[in-house]
Structure formats: structure tokens, C-alpha cells
């Protein structure tokens, strides 16, 4: 269940920037949607196929530049069985392009998701349901959601557990298991607090800019992965990925 393969991918690409990929039809180019509408007619199927094409195109454009892809599984599943088909297709495409694939499933039990998404290397889980959430097949791993971005998430995650906040107690347990944890708040104070107590805990940071992410890395640029959600909607994915890598090098040069 180690994250070492992910860290190897980061060292290979010399960057801790990951491609964030989600299903959001509102930001698709009108010309792209129109192209599939002309093929399949008005309706949900045309949108689904536009999302499939869009995701595959971005994966192709950023392959070799970025080490990992972070797929928002729930956004695809909103489209039902057709959305699941797109999600499976994108997992397979990402795997074939050499990405380390993380599916953000937010599940309480990871095992079944690897049957659904066999090309995924890891899935996100809710650690607050206990150790059962961390059971995975050999060669796979989980990424517990340590801090989530919901407006009311602190009502549970920031509760005091003895002399520390609940999410810090969970961080200690996950570190002992050798897992990486997801932090969605993007606040430097949260990142610094976790890093101060857990120097070796691998962090996956979403909704986080370069300046705040800087506190997650050691002197060698190791220790974290930063998910960039903007690249997927750029006019040129390759150019946007290169720009994101360049910006990240100012705070985390991977050696």
C-alpha cells in the first residue's frame, strides 16, 4: 500500500504537479459540444461523448509532462452508467499514457472500486469509518481524506481528540500505515500543522496554490503532490501543463 510508485513517477517527471480531471459540461467549448450534438442529436449522450473526448485529449496532451492524474469520480457518476463508462475509459487511457492514476471515489470501502476501475493505482477513502476503508488488493493503495473542503467539514474533522484535533489523530494513524493523505483546504496553516507533526507523511493537495503548497515539501521537492484543476480547461493542455510545472519549480524543485 506504499505511495513509493507515485513518488517514483514524480521523480521521473521532475515535478509534483498532477492533472486534475473532472466532468464539467459548463466549461466545455461550445464548438466541441456542437460537434457531438450534430453526430448524436440534442441530449445527454452528446454531452457524455464530449466529456470523453475532452478528457482523452487532455491526457494525451499532458502525458510525459505530468506524473499523475486525479480523477473526480463523483462528477462522472452524476451521469449514471454512461458517466461510469467514461470514467473507466479515462482511467484506462491515463494508465496507457503512463500516468499514476488516483480516482477520487470518497468511499468507505476501497476494495470494490478496484474491480470497477482496475487501472486505478489508488482511490480516495473516508478514514473516519475505520481501518476497513484501507483494505486494498496487492499493488494498490488508498489516499485517506484527511481534510476536506466542505464548509462544514470542520464540525467533525476539527473536533478535539485528547490534546489534538481529530484530523491530526487520523494523520498519525495513516502515517503509521505508510499511506498518503488528501488535504483539500489549501490553507498553509493546515499544511504546516500536519507537516510539523508528520515530516514523512505524503500529502495530496487539492485547491491549493504554489505558495501554500510550498510548506508540504522537503528540501528535495519530495513529500507531496499538487493537483492542478485548471490545466484541463486550457486551450492548449501541453502549454498549460508546462506553465504549471515552471511555476511549481519556484517552490519545489524535484531532485
Topology at a glance:
Blueprint: H1 4-13, E1 17-21, H2 30-40, H3 44-62, E2 68-72, H4 73-77, H5 80-96, E3 100-107, H6 111-116, E4 122-125, E5 141-147, H7 154-157, E6 160-161, E7 164-165, H8 166-176, E8 180-183, H9 188-197, E9 202-205, H10 210-213, E10 224-228, H11 237-249
Parallel strand pairs: 1-2, 1-10, 2-3, 3-4, 4-5, 5-8, 8-9, 9-10
Antiparallel strand pairs: 6-7
Helix pairs in contact: 2-3, 3-5
Which key terms come to mind for this protein?
255 residues; alpha/beta; 11 helices; 10 strands; 18% strand
CATH topology: TIM Barrel
Average residue pLDDT:
92
CATH architecture: Alpha-Beta Barrel
> pLDDT under 50 segments (min length 5)?
none
What is this entry, summarized?
This protein has 255 residues and is α/β, with parallel strands linked by helices. It has helices spanning 4-13, 30-40, 44-62, 73-77, 80-96, 111-116, 154-157, 166-176, 188-197, 210-213, 237-249, and strands at residues 17-21, 68-72, 100-107, 122-125, 141-147, 160-161, 164-165, 180-183, 202-205, 224-228. Helix 6 (111-116) links the parallel strand 3 (100-107) and strand 4 (122-125).
Amino acid at each position: 500500500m506504499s505511495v513509493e510508485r507515485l513518488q517514483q513517477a514524480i521523480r521521473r517527471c521532475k515535478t509534483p504537479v498532477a492533472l486534475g480531471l473532472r466532468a464539467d459540461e459548463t466549461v466545455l467549448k461550445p464548438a466541441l459540444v456542437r460537434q457531438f450534438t450534430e453526430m448524436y442529436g440534442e441530449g445527454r449522450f452528446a454531452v457524455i461523448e464530449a466529456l470523453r473526448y475532452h478528457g482523452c485529449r487532455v491526457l494525451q496532451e499532458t502525458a510525459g509532462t505530468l506524473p499523475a492524474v486525479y480523477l473526480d469520480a463523483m462528477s462522472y457518476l452524476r451521469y449514471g452508467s454512461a458517466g461510469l463508462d467514461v470514467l473507466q475509459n479515462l482511467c484506462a487511457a491515463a494508465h496507457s499514457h503512463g500516468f499514476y492514476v488516483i480516482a477520487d471515489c470518497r468511499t468507505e470501502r476501497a476494495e470494490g472500486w478496484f474491480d470497477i476501475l482496475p487501472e486505478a493505482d489508488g482511490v480516495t477513502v473516508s478514514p473516519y469509518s475505520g481501518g476497513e476503508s484501507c483494505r486494498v488488493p496487492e499493488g494498490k493503495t488508498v489516499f485517506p481524506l484527511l481534510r476536506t473542503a466542505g464548509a462544514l467539514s470542520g464540525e467533525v474533522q476539527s473536533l478535539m481528540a485528547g490534546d489534538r484535533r481529530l484530523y491530526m489523530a487520523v494523520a498519525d494513524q495513516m502515517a503509521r500505515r505508510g499511506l498518503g493523505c488528501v488535504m483539500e483546504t489549501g490553507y498553509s496553516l493546515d499544511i504546516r500543522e500536519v507537516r510539523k507533526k508528520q515530516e514523512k507523511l505524503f500529502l495530496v493537495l487539492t485547491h491549493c496554490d504554489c505558495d501554500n503548497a510550498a510548506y508540504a515539501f522537503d528540501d528535495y521537492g519530495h513529500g507531496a503532490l499538487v493537483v492542478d484543476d485548471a490545466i484541463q480547461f486550457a486551450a492548449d493542455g501541453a502549454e498549460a501543463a508546462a506553465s504549471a510545472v515552471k511555476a511549481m519549480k519556484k517552490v519545489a524543485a524535484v531532485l
